[in-house]
């Protein structure tokens, strides 16, 4: 048994690459069965394009990504990302599941209030667009599990340490506005909490293997840009250079 575990550990990078490649190839193929049609809202068509593009980026990343500096080694570094990856899909369970739950399922899936779904769908599209932009910034350092690869600090990562997670959170809360059912709200709350925990676990590993991550963490926000801190740092730099920052000009 130990020999088998050791052999799997040696092949972990290759197994993960091929698993991701196959899974996202299936997801891309599935997308073509979910095309909303020409008569659908333009926002629904835009969302379909964004999600399909995101799956293509995930799929291609498994071919192009750099070797890991440290692979996932603890159960939480594998299981937590898998749970986080599935929770957005759990927001809208199949009709058969809702029917199987009976009255409880109908209650959990019934909207708590009425709201124009276009608002929620538009927010979902904005979150998905941010996720695509974050994926383009992350590039070859992408990984589902909590693994350490080359540090990404350009693009959106210059301002935010976890733009992919921010985009996904915006999308799941957009779904809550599109279909404000108790079940969707519970999934969004759980997803936000677990995704934040996942990010903290990743950061502990990045600090361990990337000494420069501490300085980067002080510059970029966790989920939101640290605009105030950047302004203060710029003001100090201007003062040190003998200039006057705009906030210090006489009024």
Describe this structure in words.
The chain is mainly alpha-helical. The chain has a single domain (2-230), classed as Four Helix Bundle (Hemerythrin (Met), subunit A) (Up-down Bundle). 67% of the residues lie in helices and 0% in strands. The chain contains eleven helices and no strands. It has helices at residues 2-10, 12-31, 42-64, 75-90, 95-101, 103-109, 117-138, 163-178, 182-209, 213-219, 227-240. Residues 234-251 have low confidence and may be disordered.
Notable characteristics:
Four Helix Bundle (Hemerythrin (Met), subunit A); mainly alpha; 0% strand; 251 residues; disordered C terminus
Radius of gyration: 21 Å
- Strand and helix order: HHHHHHHHHHH
Structural class: mainly alpha
Apparent shape? globular
Number of helices: 11
Can you give the helix content as a percent range? Answer: 55-70%
Q: In total, how many domains does the architecture comprise?
A: 1
The strand count comes to 0
The level-1 CATH class: Mainly Alpha
Low-confidence stretches: 234-251
CATH architecture tag: Up-down Bundle
**What distance separates the N and C termini?**
75 Å
Strand content: under 5%
Largest sheet, if any? Answer: none
Overall mean pLDDT stands at 86
Here the CATH topology equals Four Helix Bundle (Hemerythrin (Met), subunit A)
